[in-house]
Design goal:
The protein is an alpha/beta fold and 470 residues long. Helix content is 45%, strand content 13%. The protein is globular, with a radius of gyration of 22 Å. The two termini are 12 Å apart.
Length: 470
């Protein structure tokens, strides 16, 4: 059976779309393996060669060369290619050899396909325009799957407005995660200026959005303002921003899709969820206190831009009164230019068709090379595990796990996770909390019913952080 590996870096953002993609893959005869990225990479010696679908080729953490060394094919669908600060910044985040070990590059739509082409990016097997499985979840065909969660959210909050934040570059939970993260080759004089100016602008926007919370909540009372921080952010500043406000709350639970669908409107600044909201049919308001060279035109193309709490409240009043203007013909065409799968075949169908062909041409790895690679990964794990047993950091990690995630033991962590700081470990438990197999199977059954196919498939756990479908 041909294997498709679907690494997840953030369960709230990616898990459900990867689950849907796994369903389509299993229906086509492939063996999908979904799991936390670091755990899949640590388990490489035990994985049969197949296709790895990665969410970028920008970071060394993706280990594309190691995947190739174990005989896998590497396919990339970059999650940031839709909402880019600018083409220049986006491309400067890539190492100069970023695509050397990438076999196929998948695109959200014609727009990012043209961007790759303009800058003469090439990969062995070319490009595929596929949309994104996250957008499949928002299509009307699958809307019934979200109904129970939507009803629960409306019962809990009544009519609410969702404020999604997007500040991991300046408010990251971990010191390692902040900044623009340009590649080292791009940090010349211009790169340093871009880095400085972007961070200065983003910091000012972060502070402006924090200051927005109290006056906006007062202006829309009794409607509830629900703040959903970015998964990678430090959530504490947002919790402080709602203290003493009766109709404002910070919530970070599950995936964003039912929160978007249940909301009366979404407020954002330069966030991908603005486009997700449009696909879901939820009105969008752009918080734009000033114009910036770093604004993304697409993120602000489908909603009304407002500079302060009063203008946002006025626009929300129109929306809450039912005076919301649907997309124009031109806006719909723009949406489809950027995202191929908002109509026609699902993104999952397009992806499976392409990678299923690719997976039949996997490379072979000689036994001597495999033994060397297995030994190296085993050496790294043992070294970090022994160090974690003897170090103060390791003792702190064990105390944290015992309190926050008692079912997870140190020896369950891979060698990268064993090297995490306490902040990184906190982010791990936020990004990939324990899997609820019952909930996953209910989702699988719901998708199968809505699609009219894939009935009878069940989730089977492979480890703490990985599962498949049977």
């Amino acid at each position: 059976m041909r294997h498709l590996y679907l690494p997840v870096t953030s369960q709230p953002r990616e898990l459900e779309s990867k689950l849907l993609l796994a369903l389509f893959a299993r229906g086509s005869g492939m063996r999908p393996i979904v799991g936390y990225k670091s755990s899949l990479l640590a388990g490489l010696p035990r994985l049969l060669p197949g296709v790895f679908l990665l969410h970028n080729a920008r970071q060394s953490a993706e280990k594309t060369s190691l995947l190739k060394a174990f005989g896998h094919r590497v396919v990339v669908l970059d999650e940031e290619a839709l909402i880019r600060q600018s083409d220049e910044i986006f491309l400067k985040k890539h190492p100069q050899n970023a695509f050397k070990t990438v076999d196929m590059l998948l695109c959200w739509g014609q727009d990012d396909h043209d961007m790759w082409q303009r800058h003469k990016v090439s990969v062995r097997e070319g490009f595929g325009i596929v949309g994104n499985p996250r957008m499949d979840l928002l299509r009307h065909e699958l809307a019934p799957v979200q109904r129970e969660q939507i009803d629960a959210l409306r019962q809990r909050y009544g009519r609410y407005v969702l404020l999604n934040t997007n500040f991991p570059s300046v408010n990251n939970l971990t010191p390692q995660g902040g900044g623009v993260r340009l590649a080292s080759w791009a940090m010349d004089e211009r790169g340093r200026r871009i880095d400085h100016d972007f961070i200065a602008n983003k910091t000012a926007l972060f502070e402006a959005e924090l200051d927005l919370v109290a006056p906006l909540a007062r202006a829309i009372h009794p409607t509830t303002l629900v703040i959903r921080p970015h998964p990678n952010e430090n959530h504490e500043p947002w919790h402080k921003s709602v203290q003493g406000i009766s109709n404002a709350e910070v919530a970070f639970e599950g995936g964003v899709i039912p929160w978007l669908m249940a909301a009366e409107a979404l407020i954002h600044n330069n966030c991908t969820t603005a486009v997700e909201a449009v696909v879901a049919g939820t009105p969008v308001l752009n918080f734009v206190p000033w114009l910036s060279e770093f604004d993304n035109a697409l993120a602000h193309a489908f909603g009304q831009s407002c500079a302060d709490a009063m203008s946002l409240a006025a626009s929300l009043s129109d929306i809450l009164s039912g005076r919301h203007v649907p997309l124009t013909v031109e806006q719909q065409a723009l949406l489809e230019h950027h995202i191929a799968s908002v109509s026609g075949p699902f993104s999952c169908e397009r992806i499976v068709k392409l990678v299923d062909t690719a997976s039949t041409r996997g490379a072979t790895v000689g036994p001597r090379k495999r033994l060397f690679l297995e030994a190296e990964i085993g050496r790294l794990w043992l070294k970090r595990y022994v160090n974690s047993l003897a170090s103060n950091r390791g003792r702190a990690m064990r105390r944290y796990l015992a309190a926050a995630q008692p079912e997870l033991r140190m020896h369950h962590l891979d060698h990268e996770q064993l090297g995490y700081s306490l902040e990184q470990l906190q982010l791990l438990t936020r990004q990939f909390p324990p899997l609820d197999l019952g909930a996953l199977n209910r989702r699988v059954a719901g998708y199968a019913e809505a699609l009219g196919r894939f009935g009878g498939l069940k989730v089977r756990r492979l480890s703490d952080f990985t599962f498949t479908l049977d």
